[in-house]
Write a structure and sequence with these properties.
Shape: elongated
Number of strands: 0
Structural class: mainly alpha
Low-confidence stretches: none
Largest sheet: none
Radius of gyration: 19 Å
Strand content: under 5%
């Protein structure tokens, strides 16, 4: 019967727990930035609407993509799927940065 190195197993579990915690912090930080960006876009939408105009289409799509992928990242993280959580988070973060650039943040 093969011997299992309990120290290596514990080390792997610790690394996994640390990776999940770091990913949770990244999701929270991106979520906060996304909320601020969406609120700013809402203000711009109201101003534009008063003038009979609409928000640029690419920015509206970026906002929706940001929200959808943040939700997917949260769900993947909740399911312990760190690989897909990171993938969705990266997509959401890229869209957040696009919106922040548009807003001048």
């Amino acid at each position: 019967m093969p011997e299992v190195d309990q120290g290596a197993k514990g080390s792997d579990a610790t690394q996994t727990a640390e990776a999940i915690q770091e990913l949770e912090q990244d999701v929270d930080q991106t979520s906060s930035r996304a909320t601020v960006a969406s609120e700013s876009l809402g203000n711009i939408r109201r101003q534009l609407s008063a003038q009979g105009l609409n928000l640029r289409g690419d920015i509206a799509v970026a906002e929706e993509t940001m929200k959808v992928n943040l939700d997917k990242a949260r769900q993947a993280l909740q399911n312990g799927d760190t690989k897909n959580a990171r993938r969705y988070l990266n997509i959401a973060r890229a869209q957040t940065e696009k919106i922040e650039k548009f807003l001048g943040h």
